Amino acid sequence: MKKLIISSLAIFALINCSSSDDSVEENPVVDPTTIVPTKFTEITQDNQTYVTEYKYDGTKLLEETSGNKKTVYTYNGDLISKTEDYTGTNLTYKRQFVYTNGRVTSETTTTYNSTLPLVTTIAFQYLSDNHVTFTKNGEGNDIYLSNNGNIKIATWSPGSVIRTFTNTYDGQNNPYKNIKGYLKINFLLSLEGDYASNNLVNSSSVQTGAVPATYGNSAVHTYNGHDFPTKTVMTFTSSLHATNSHTYMYEYNK
Description:
Order of helices and strands: HEEEEEEEEEEEEEHEEEE
Number of helices: 2
Structural class: mainly beta
Low-confidence stretches: 1-15
CATH class: Mainly Beta
Strand content: over 45%
Number of domains: 1
CATH topology: Porin
Largest sheet: 17 strands, antiparallel
Helix content: 10-25%
Distance between the termini: 50 Å
């Protein structure tokens, strides 16, 4: 009888152990800092669909592809030193970056065409931790940042037109937040706040000068259990154009 009781206890312990192990495997602990997007789908108002897929080494982005176009990323440590855009096998565009204290201070772009390559350089001037200015293609940009790196207010000055943006964000994770170096090279170039630490909720802008106008972007996000958006519906309004909306879908590695 004693042996039978011991055997029964041993079997019970094995069942419990197995059940516990299965539970751990079914609900693994996920490090949220390693979550990166693997696929992005954009659906336009007229039901055109565009798909971009991403390949990584850990959280370093190696390549993104969309149809017959791709962008290849080169790193120096954890910072992106160069990106190269291809259509098929033809190199069409290249970006190269210079950093100071971990921030991009210079970007050189090369556009390849049938004649000579066109090379331009953008110099970013950090007037403070929250104030950046730069000129691109003769257009002035004056940007004020929040403490977590989102664009709060920005002014764009292409000649006789001045357009001022005011952006608000949620408190959740931007899909591109964890890609090594990605936001550093992109967030200043989208004054409407598409690339930021958090997700854009609303962007309103007023344009004065030769072509007065008002614009607005508003977003409704659906999040996963790790506070990353899986679906975003973005509505675009303008005093010059009809209202339209796009749907963005995100898939992740975890």
